[in-house]
């Protein structure tokens, strides 16, 4: 039996994956932002849950402290995220897409790092093919997307940051933990509900049934990685689209983007690491 923490677990892919994993006999802990929705999922599955708003780094810090009650964590699925609308800064001073999709997960992983290393855990990132569609070229010096902001560009940047963080975890802690990212497919969820772009129009109308997959089907991708054996079922640092490797448009051959992202992120969350 594995102990699996899933952020973004109150809806969509996270909730669907939790249901499957619980049915297979694993201990699942979900994290959500909405108290009513999160409690409903957790109560239906008879599993523990925690609340955290990733637009508030203090919430993430509190969440990490709460998760320390569990004796071990085999899998941390950093699944929370979404595409936003107009450029907005959080109370912490960061562009909202950047913080919700990357920085919150970065902080949570850092705060749990000792437990993750001790358990040789797997850290899974829900990325997206949007990293290729909207995140290239990537400027590591503009993580808050000050230049030429669009919600698609911010989302593409954030999903590429998920990939960079995955690779950097593997580079910094080889053999001590495992990390992998995946594209969930174009899923019929509420992830674009805050967006004012064509993506919201697509996802909030009957058009969402054209060329999309259900959360339950997408969740199988997360479940497979959560239960998989590193080096057998997946390659550390890789990005998957279903059973196939996803070719990432931004190459970062010298690793400078990954290292730059790590260092900038550490500086951004340093006050919450004490």
What does the model show?
This protein has 274 residues and is an alpha/beta fold. It has one domain: Rossmann fold (3-Layer(aba) Sandwich), CATH 3.40.50. The chain is built from ten helices and eight strands. It has helices spanning 12-23, 35-45, 57-67, 96-111, 113-118, 130-133, 151-172, 198-203, 215-227, 256-269; strands at 3-7, 27-32, 49-51, 75-78, 122-126, 178-183, 239-241, 244-245. It has an eight-stranded mixed sheet, with helices on both faces. Helix 1 (12-23) crosses helix 9 and helix 3 (57-67) packs parallel to helix 4. The longest helix is centred in the middle third of the chain and has 22 residues, at 151-172. The chain is globular, with a radius of gyration of 17 Å. Residues 206-210 have low confidence and may be disordered.
List the helices and strands and how they pair.
Elements: E1 3-7, H1 12-23, E2 27-32, H2 35-45, E3 49-51, H3 57-67, E4 75-78, H4 96-111, H5 113-118, E5 122-126, H6 130-133, H7 151-172, E6 178-183, H8 198-203, H9 215-227, E7 239-241, E8 244-245, H10 256-269
Parallel strand pairs: 1-2, 1-4, 2-3, 4-5, 5-6, 6-7
Antiparallel strand pairs: 7-8
The mean pLDDT is 92
The separation of the N and C termini measures: 32 Å
Name given to the CATH architecture: 3-Layer(aba) Sandwich
Number of helices: 10
Question: How big a fraction of the residues is strand?
Answer: 5-15%
Shape: globular
**What's the CATH C level?**
Alpha Beta
Largest sheet: 8 strands, mixed
**Based on DSSP secondary structure assignment, what is the total number of beta strands?**
8
How many domains comprise the coordinates?
Answer: 1
What is the ordering of alpha helices and beta strands? EHEHEHEHHEHHEHHEEH
CATH superfamily: NAD(P)-binding Rossmann-like Domain
Helix coverage percent: 40-55%
**What's the CATH topology label?**
Rossmann fold
Question: If strands are numbered along the chain, what order do they take across the biggest sheet?
Answer: 3-2-1-4-5-6-7-8
**Rounded to an integer, what's the Rg over CA atoms?**
17 Å
Structural class: alpha/beta
Stretches where pLDDT is under 50 for at least 5 consecutive residues are 206-210
